[in-house]
Design a protein that fits this description.
- The strands form four sheets. The chain has a six-stranded parallel beta sheet with strand order 3-2-1-4-5-6, with helices on both faces. A six-stranded parallel beta sheet has the order 13-12-11-14-15-16.
- Helix 13 links the parallel strand 11 (321-325) and strand 12.
- The protein has helices at residues 10-21, 33-40, 51-61, 97-106, 126-135, 153-158, 176-188, 190-194, 204-235, 239-247, 268-281, 290-312, 340-350, 363-369, 379-383, 396-399, 404-408, 425-430, and strands at residues 2-6, 25-29, 64-67, 78-81, 115-118, 140-143, 163-166, 169-170, 173-174, 199-202, 321-325, 354-358, 374-375, 388-391, 415-418, 434-436.
- It folds into two domains: 2-202, 3-Layer(aba) Sandwich (Rossmann fold); 204-441, NAD(P)-binding Rossmann-like Domain (Rossmann fold, 3-Layer(aba) Sandwich).
- It has 18 helices and 16 strands.
- It is 43% helix and 14% strand.
- The N and C termini lie far apart (57 Å).
- The structure holds uridine-5'-diphosphate-glucuronic acid.
- Residues 121, 146-150, 215, 218, 222, 256-258, 260, 262-265, 267-268, 329-330 line the site of uridine-5'-diphosphate-glucuronic acid.
Length: 441
């Protein structure tokens, strides 16, 4: 099928390449000329495992192309909209400027019978508002939220755990137009549909809410365990053992119970804030008032990490060499948007420490935003002469490949703060380190 993808960021670029990899003919469209130039040469504009391979393959096959020219969308049957919906400057609500601009730019190139599939994360009510503009061109708007995780984006796109299509509906059931649109999406995702991946057809509002409530739930799970970490800290309990124990209950589950410096990235933080803002607009602010608490718990963990470093160094950070292992908001990504790792590094720097920071993928991005920090590519170089080491992104390079003995041969001090509870505490202690975890004795 011929497809267009409007917006070639983390979501759109992966979606375009993944759709070409399953046999579709895809044009990716973005206003950023540099991004389009890179993608056209088969170069991934950001670090995402597996993306490079499917980009190269798609371009070589002739099925995948990129352009800044919106008119290239003409002739595609389905047009995916995957532009950003960042937090508004000066507020918590989502900024929908890019979504509106994408729809307005696309409409003149639509043909009757086309499908516009919104993938961006939007406040509930957005599809309902946009639908008339798409209908005026004889096309149908569907909302098809995306659940991909950075670092696993290709796999999550090619083989998602569920597909959701919000279609035009009446009295709780799809209209004839909505049902046809859902069938077209089933065709787009044929390999997943054929293998039995759940394909949920619903109305616009439900589809939009599925996305934000999924992220709100994940954020809640993380902040829940971080709240337990706070209690563990005053009682001497170990939050990692607690998480293991409650995680054995299948109703709870161990995943996303990783206590540490908390969640960041381009999605969870802004999505819970936008959800709160939207709920307030709808007169139901109290229904998700707990999300403010989720946010607050999350941000407190960064303070805690900074306090741990400071206390471990005797209360003063001034002129102390601190090596920060990690800058990305999570491993397997070069994304530093709202990265707790980078935030902790910046705060330590602000308190007078000499901060050296390293990361296998995110240094370039981090340097652009925070040029004041000392970036070192090589992990071992970064560790040299450190008075204390803090792990803030659980890359394998730090979690598995760095032994406490080797680290000790490089650093000056023997203080390690495990901001992600990802190190083997016993092994580090046995090697002479003073180990501090998050919510661990
Ligand atoms: C998140 C969701 O997981 C995806 O399903 C969703 O599609 C995506 O947002 C989105 O809306 O686009 P992502 O932001 O890539 O995906 O990252 P996550 O894997 O959810 O991690 C988010 C943050 O939570 C990271 O900073 C991570 O370090 C932190 N985290 C995760 C924890 O602190 N503890 C955990 O146990 C798990």
């Amino acid at each position: 099928m011929r497809l267009s993808v409007i917006g070639c960021g983390y979501l759109g670029a992966v979606h375009a390449a993944a759709m070409a990899s399953i046999g579709h003919e895809v044009v990716g469209i973005d206003v950023d000329e540099r991004k389009v130039a890179a993608l056209s040469k088969g170069e991934a504009p950001f670090f995402e495992p597996g993306l490079q391979e499917i980009l190269t393959e798609g371009i070589a096959s002739g099925r995948l192309s990129f352009t800044t020219d919106m008119s290239a969308a003409a002739g595609a049957k389905v047009h995916f909209v995957g532009v950003g919906t960042p937090q508004q400057a000066g507020g918590y609500a989502a900024d929908l400027t890019y979504v509106d601009a994408a729809i307005d730019g696309l409409v003149p190139h639509l043909a009757p019978g086309d499908i516009v599939a919104g993938k961006s994360t939007v406040p509930v009510g957005t599809a309902e508002r946009l639908a008339p503009r798409v209908s005026a061109a004889g096309a149908t708007l569907v909302w098809n939220p995306e659940f991909l995780r950075e670092g696993w984006a290709v796999q999550d796109t090619v083989d998602p755990d569920r597909l959701v299509a919000g279609v035009p509906s009446e009295d709780g059931a799809p209209t004839a137009e909505g049902a046809t649109a859902a069938d077209v999406l089933r065709e787009v995702y044929h390999p997943s549909v054929a293998k039995g991946t759940p394909f949920i057809v619903t109305d616009y509002a439900t589809a939009e809410l599925v996305k934000v409530s999924a992220n709100a739930f994940l954020a809640t799970k993380i902040s829940f365990i971080n709240a337990m970490a706070e209690i563990a800290e005053v009682t001497g309990a170990d939050v990692t053992t607690l998480a293991d124990a409650i995680g054995h209950d299948a109703r709870i589950g161990r995943r996303f119970l990783g206590a540490g410096i908390g969640f960041g990235g381009g999605c969870l933080p802004k999505d819970i804030r936008a959800f709160s803002a939207r709920a307030e607009e709808l007169g139901r602010g109290e229904s998700v008032a707990f999300l403010r608490e989720i946010d607050a718990i999350n941000l407190r963990r960064r303070d805690r990490a900074v306090d741990l470093v400071s206390t471990a160094l005797g209360g003063a950070l001034f002129k102390k060499n601190i090596t920060v292992l990690g800058a990305a908001f999570k491993p397997h990504s070069d994304d530093i948007r709202d990265s707790p790792a980078l935030d902790v590094a910046v705060r330590l720097h602000g308190l007078g420490a000499w901060v050296t920071i390293t990361d296998p993928a995110a240094i370039e991005n981090a340097r652009r935003i925070h040029p004041q920090l000392n970036y070192v590519e090589d992990r071992d170089e970064a560790l040299r002469e450190a008075d204390a080491v803090i792990v803030v992104t659980e890359w394998d390079e730090y979690r598995r490949q760095l032994t406490p003995e080797h680290a000790a041969s490089l650093t000056r001090g023997r203080i390690v703060i495990d901001g992600r509870n990802c190190l083997d505490a016993a092994a580090w202690r046995a090697a002479g380190w003073t180990y501090h975890g998050m919510g661990r004795p």
